[in-house]
Amino acid sequence: MQKILQGNYAIARGAWEAGVRVACAYPGTPSSEIIAAMSEQYRKDVIAEWSPNEKVALEVAIGASFTGVRSMASMKHVGLNVASDPFMTVSYTGVKGGLVVIVADDPYSHSSQNEQDSRHWARFGKVPMLEPCDSQECKDFTKMAFELSERFDTPVLLRTETRVAHSFSPVTLEDRKESTLPVGLDKKEAPKYTMVPIYVRIRRRLVEERMKKLEAFADEFKYNILEMNDPKVGVITSGVCYNYTKEVFPQYSYLKLGMAWPLPRRMISEFSRSVKKIIVVEQLDPFLETEIRAMGIKVFRGKDVIPSFYELSPEMIERSLKGKRYKPPKERINAEELPKRPPNLCSGCSHRALFYAIKKLGLFTFGDIGCYTLATAPPLNAIHSTICMGAGIGGAFGAMKALGKEGLGKCCAVIGDSTFLHAGIPPLMDIVYNKGNSTTIILDNRTTGMTGLQEHPGTGLTITGEPTHQIDLEELVRALGVKQVRKVDPYNLQETMEVIKEEVERDEASVIITANGPCMLHRREKRRFEHPFYTVLTENCRGCGLCLEAGCPAISWKEVSGEDAITRDGHKRKGVVQINRVQCPGCGLCRQICKFDAIVPGKA
Amino acid sequence: MEEKVTNVLLSGVGGQGTILASDILCSVFHEVGYDVKKSEVHGMAQRGGDVTTHFRFGKKVYSPLIKYGDVDYLISLELLEGLRYINWVKKGGKVLLNQQEVFPPAVNLGKMKYPEDVVGVFKKYFNGHVYAVDGLDLAMKCGDARAVNVVIIGAFSKFFDIREEIWEKNLLSHLPPKIHELNLRAFKAGRGAIS
């Protein structure tokens, strides 16, 4: 039976068919759907869970593998940075039940803080990596990854990227096959699983031997596919780049690598001898190209013309390889001049209210990863640094250490609830331990917002919706030693500004937690506002534009002239604002900002 | 079946249902025997950003992305988001526009102007192949503004010789039963909008 599946759903399907028992992840675009799909569709057979972060997810999968069951962890590219510690060492211990790590790259940084190339992890960690090009391969390669993991006693990486993870194509479905390995823990296996120096040295040698075996295997691997067409040009490529290149140069010969690491050296040598010129097409870094050149093979075209940053596309590949012979399509308008439509905080979002307060206080804000990062955009311009999950808290602490008392009242850290539980606890501990005085604001919207509202340990529900212990953020923060903990209603602008001002000026570690500000997309925890929407009393509006500084998508500006260019009480104005009733949820922030009583509650 | 792959670019604003519209196309064309691929960018899409999906069907589809300048059909649920991709449409391509304007932040703030006469600009380049539909009005007449995407799918369905039942069946398979009737009305309204 064939079904159209998203790449991520196909990975979940493949893992299920392969008999996976434990699957964990922390959500991250473009990988989030894998575990969501697993829980949604296969929870009868698979324990699928949201972990607090990627490191934990991988560690849970490793433990499960050590009992003999098949397990997996999935994450976005930067998630593997977080999980890199267990990852680098599980390469040494190897596995018992098949262990697969899915890593999803995001070229062009559609939704990420960088665009690193995860293939380096395979070489760095000395583990094999498979790279599917569409949904069918996502399913097939995931199954294959479990097989290889057990056969070669190694974790296996499966790398996707946005256009594989988030593309849809037909997939042939098969049945689940349970693993036949016996399940249990065996104390006699300690030397394999305990990476202390004496055992490390034994495993270290085995890792090298394993990679040699895998290299030989790569030459026979059925998903390293040779397609001989015109022998003048041979393209070596992998993943979605194969599809792009095939689209624009169907006449060339191809060596499509289903296994991105280790490389099939014999196949590559033979291919290079059977064609006149070798072209290497790959997304991001010259990973294959560097290796192929190191084999002494002449590469005719590669990263000398194909960009090693941003995202490739059929057009980009055609343009790069054709050079001056490329004829671009006719440009009818300059699309760059059109107004852009960047993502924005939703109308009514509690983050907007809080960031408006921060903006007014003029603080330098160390931000973090989540929807609230959007507050860096104009007109809010209220986030001034973002590195990675958890970095905001440590960053603000470091800045305050460097600035000394001079820094009081000048900066703060903001972090979401899910992100705080992911990576915010150790830096907060550090502030208390090392007697810091910075302020951390936890933007508690009761969910993991940006990736699509996943549960986390602070929501009190598991991935399946089953009630579980709910972490009380205030209790947790106090347990770390923070004495000064306050809650604010972010929709109360004056109170929020006062509390933030007091805390950033206080020469002591402090935490502010937003209360009753659930994500606007959150159906379960919707906040009821006092009024259904707000409206503009046009005769009072002076067109000062102060409310526009909040960047609410429901508020817009309209130029006025003639009779309309004057308020009821005789003030000149150039325009008025208007509120889109459909978009306004009635949060009331704009009413608090307006100094001329021009924004009033609407009546349903 | 002809070898050629057909390229459909859908654009719109996060929340308009662009992705659902492309899901429906995917299952319809798959059911009638084509290979299909669809690609989208989301993650930040629900928050008012622009959303595009590339949908391709043919005997064998390789790339999930359409090559720049190779679009056979541009469907846009919003005028500015349609105009943004005018250069993508090949000569002789067809353009289906929902005549709805959703102001982006720069326009809301009074810093930039919303482009004027988008339909006219398209007509200048694709005369005779531009179809403008007041999808929002039709959707509201059917009972819910959110059915705009289905109205537009209905209009699009008129370009192909595929039985109406196949469209309807695949439309409903993507929607919860309680909104089936509404969406069937929206689909038919869209079909009726294209003569």
Protein described:
The complex is a heterodimer of chains A (604) and B (195). Chain A is of the alpha/beta class and 604 residues long. Chain A folds into four domains: 217 residues, Rossmann fold (3-Layer(aba) Sandwich); 101 residues, 3-Layer(aba) Sandwich (Rossmann fold); 165 residues, 3-Layer(aba) Sandwich (Rossmann fold); 68 residues, Alpha-Beta Plaits. Chain A is built from 20 helices and 22 strands. In chain A, strands 3-2-4-5-7-6-12 form a seven-stranded mixed β-sheet. Chain A has a five-stranded parallel β-sheet with strand order 14-15-16-18-17, sandwiched between helices. In chain A, strand 2, helix 2 and strand 3 form a beta-alpha-beta unit. The mean pLDDT of chain A is 96. Chain B is of the alpha/beta class and 195 residues long. Chain B has one domain: Pyruvate-ferredoxin Oxidoreductase, domain 3 (3-Layer(aba) Sandwich). In chain B, strands 2-3-1-4-5-6 form a six-stranded mixed β-sheet, sandwiched between helices. In chain B, helix 1 runs parallel beside helix 6. The longest helix of chain B is centred in the first third of the chain and has 14 residues. The two termini of chain B are 26 Å apart. Strand 8 of chain A pairs antiparallel with strand 2 of chain B, so a sheet runs across the interface.
Strand order of the largest sheet of chain A: 3-2-4-5-7-6-12
Number of strands of chain B: 6
- CATH H level, superfamily name of the largest domain in chain A: Thiamin diphosphate (ThDP)-binding fold, Pyr/PP domains
Distance between the termini of chain A: 51 Å
Mean pLDDT of chain A: 96
As a percent range, the share of helical residues of chain A equals 25-40%
CATH homologous superfamily (4th level) name of chain B: Pyruvate-ferredoxin oxidoreductase, PFOR, domain III
Strand content of chain B: 15-25%
CATH architecture of the largest domain in chain A, by name, is 3-Layer(aba) Sandwich
